[in-house]
Amino acid sequence: MKALDRKLLRDLSGLFGQVLTIALVIGVGIAAYVALLSTYGSLLAGRDAYYSATDFGDVFARLESAPNELRGRLESIPGVARVETRIVKDVLVPVPDLPEPAVGRVIG
């Protein structure tokens, strides 16, 4: 067994550059993975802090047509803090310098 250990050390010393390069590539890969996880965690924490500070909605629903009485039923659902109903319509806005009209959004 001792002869095999000496042979392994002799082979590794002859391939020192390749072994060092492989170790560096593995180290950089692990460092990049840790940095990625850290950045992802920071982005999630920042998003959650922003959403809670600005009372950002958790659910959005787009309807073509709904009666106004539906608002009361939606507000009575447990866990619903606020319901906002509004009319949103896309319109064409003619701009003199554009060959085609721009699209605008009117929110009532």
Task: Describe the structure in your own words.
Helix content is 53%, strand content 11%. It has 108 residues and is mainly α. It has a two-stranded antiparallel ribbon. Strand 1 and strand 2 form a beta hairpin.
Topology, element by element:
Elements (H helix, E strand, L loop, with lengths): L1 H13 L1 H38 L16 H6 L12 E6 L8 E6 L1
Antiparallel strand pairs: 1-2
- Name the average pLDDT: 88
Main beta-sheet annotation: 2 strands, antiparallel
Instruction: Provide the domain count.
Output: 1
Strand content: 5-15%
**Element-level helix/strand string:** HHHEE
Give the N-to-C terminal Cα separation: 83 Å
CA-based shape: elongated
Computed CA radius of gyration, to the nearest angstrom: 31 Å
Q: What percentage of residues falls in helices of 4 or more residues?
A: 40-55%
Question: What is the strand tally?
Answer: 2
Q: For the largest beta sheet, what order do the strands appear in spatially?
A: 1-2
Uncertain segments: none
Q: How many individual helices? A: 3
Q: What class, by secondary structure content?
A: mainly alpha
